[in-house]
Design brief:
Layout lengths: L2 H22 L11 H16 L5 H12 L4 H7 L7 H12 L5 H11 L8 H22 L3 H21 L3 H10 L4 H11 L1
Protein name: Retrotransposon gag domain-containing protein
Organism: Laodelphax striatellus
Length: 197
């Protein structure tokens, strides 16, 4: 390796290290609404610096994932985006969820998480109502997503959120059944609960 090539590689490595340090200096966002404006401002600034560099695809992909790690994983799950999503898509989803400009899908996800059995409602009826709500949510996702991959990803995320929300609303005995069986999706979780009641 000649000196020039070494110097170029070394400069690129130093740039990556410098950018990682800049990312690290940003306080991780965990859902505090009041922190969102400053967080987005700082992330925008670092993102523009990342995009100014001519890194190879692998380095850029790794940097992008590292960059998005400043958002708590639970927040990414809640807004339904993955580490492969663009910063613009992630930023839009964060604003919709935490800055009040919620889309019908974001509002429906929140409603799903807040569902609870009505007074006197059986677990059977509650799971039926929740399943219908999840089905409606998935149809909204299908209408709002740009492609099937994004739609499938979001539906998997919402399925997991629905299972988590359901598990929090059932008895300890049923929670144990779910934990032992480890259902793959919401439908399997509902089937297990119905078999056990």
């Amino acid at each position: 390796m000649d000196d020039h090539h070494f110097q170029v590689m070394n400069a690129a490595f130093m740039n990556v290290r410098c950018l990682m340090d800049m990312v690290n200096s940003i306080h991780q966002f965990s859902g505090e609404v009041k922190e969102l404006p400053l967080f987005l401002e700082r992330m925008d600034s670092v993102h523009s610096q990342i995009m100014q560099n001519n890194f190879d695809d692998v380095t850029m992909s790794n940097l992008h994932s590292y960059f998005l790690s400043r958002i708590d994983t639970s927040v990414l799950l809640e807004i339904g985006v993955s580490f492969s999503a663009t910063w613009e898509d992630v930023k839009k989803a964060l604003k919709e969820r935490y800055a009040g400009a919620r889309t019908p899908v974001a509002a429906s996800v929140l409603k799903l998480l807040e569902l609870s059995p009505d007074s006197g409602e059986s677990i059977f009826d509650f799971t039926k109502r929740m399943a219908q709500y999840l089905k409606r949510l998935k149809s909204k996702v299908l209408d709002s997503c740009p492609n099937n991959d994004e739609s499938n990803l979001r539906n998997r995320v919402y399925d997991e959120l629905a299972m988590e929300a359901l598990t929090n609303k059932i008895s300890t005995q049923l929670q144990t059944t779910i934990k032992i069986a480890k259902p793959k999706n919401f439908e399997e979780a509902v089937a297990l609960i119905r078999d056990d009641i």
